[in-house]
Amino acid sequence: MSPSLSDSPALSRRDLLKFSLGASAFLATAGLGASLSGCSSSVAADGFAALRRSDLLFLRALIPVMLDGAVAVEAMPSAVDGTLKNLDNGLDHLSPEMLKLTRQLFDVLGMTVTRGPLTGVWGSWENASAQQIGHFLERWENSSLNLLRMGHSSLLQLVMMAWYSRKESWAHCGYPGPPVV
């Protein structure tokens, strides 16, 4: 007779705290390792003030998935480019500490050693399907780890703020635009 779910041992608070602490230490170590090894450059990509080339690879894969249904397929390349420019402008105006934290998030998502286990996307972002990226977003949104849920929330807020600050997004959400003065 197999044990029922109620007979199996539950994860205690102490075990959950140990696991969360271990996961946090792993992510912090991975981010620090990337920074110290030179994998994480702080040099902005050509034409950008804050976003790096590695960030662009990830974001160019992520943004179309997040904007799916809000943008016509033929307008998606322009929407992605405009959203990236707005996102870059927003990041360029963050405090140094907040920019550092955002870059650490992008580093964890960009490094092969952390990207696969944490996101389920084992190859490069530019080769990931929309379904894989959607699954990664859902995985982080519903994670039992607060750190991953916070990462999901940060990504969602960054991209959506950059998108909805663009005039072309206003019609989709019913916003008529600012009043004419």
Q: What's the helix and strand layout?
A:
Elements: H1 13-37, H2 53-66, H3 76-92, H4 96-110, H5 112-119, H6 130-141, H7 146-164, H8 167-173
Helix pairs in contact: 1-4, 2-3, 2-4, 2-6, 3-7
Mean pLDDT equals: 85
* Main sheet characteristics: none
Oligomer: single chain
**Tally of extended strands?**
0
Strand proportion, as a percent range, falls in: under 5%
N- and C-termini, Cα separation: 75 Å
**Integer-rounded radius of gyration:** 19 Å
Protein name: Twin-arginine translocation pathway signal protein
Provide a short characterization of the protein structure.
It contains eight helices and no strands. The chain is mainly alpha-helical.
Plain-language structure description:
This protein is mostly helical and 181 residues long. It has a domain of 119 residues. Helix content is 65%, strand content 0%. The protein is built from 8 helices and no strands. α2 packs across α3. The N and C termini lie far apart (75 Å).
Features:
single chain, 181 residues, mainly alpha, disordered N terminus, Twin-arginine translocation pathway signal protein, TAT_signal
